[in-house]
Amino acid sequence: MGSRPHRAPRSAGLARLRSLLATWRERTRLRRALRRMLTGAPHLIDDIGLTRPQAEAEAAKRFWQA
Questions:
Q1: Could you say which DSSP state residue 2 is in?
Q2: Hey, what long-range contacts does 52-57 have (CB within 8 A, 24 or more apart)?
Q3: pLDDT band (50, 70, 90) for residue 8
Q4: Contact predicate 22/50, CB 8 Å
Q5: Whole-angstrom Cα distance, residue 3 to residue 13?
Q6: Measured between alpha carbons, how far is residue 20 from residues 11, 13, 34, 62 in Å?
Q7: Cβ proximity of 59 and 38 under 8 Å
Q8: Between the CA atoms of 42, 47, 54 and 52, what dihedral angle is there, to the nearest 10 degrees?
Q9: What are the residues whose beta carbons fall under 8 Å from the beta carbon of 24, sequence distance 6 or more?
Q10: What is the pLDDT of residues 15-39, one digit of tens each?
Q11: Can you give the pLDDT at residue 57?
């Protein structure tokens, strides 16, 4: 009898998908907050330890970009 390759259970795949979606939602939320800070309260950018160019670069990323 040959051995079958190990396959992750379907629930593991769903768990990874949920995790990925949660990561994307969190990135979207954080980047929106950065954009609001950049326009409404730019002095807060220093408080979170970023330079303005760093904050602008992060805010410009798409949700799937790390």
A1: P
A2: none
A3: low
A4: no
A5: 22
A6: 14, 11, 21, 14
A7: yes
A8: 30
A9: 63, 64
A10: 999 999 999 999 999 999 999 999 9
A11: 97
- Rounded CA separation 46/66 (Å): 21
* Enclosing H/E stretch for 9: none
- pLDDT tier at 10 (50, 70, 90 boundaries)? confident
Give the C-alpha separation, 60 to 55, whole Å. Answer: 9
In this model, does residue 44 exceed pLDDT 80? yes
Burial (CB < 10 A; 0-12, 13-18, 19+), residue 3, is exposed
Residue 2 above 70 pLDDT?
Answer: no
Helix (H, G, I), strand (E, B) or coil at 4: coil
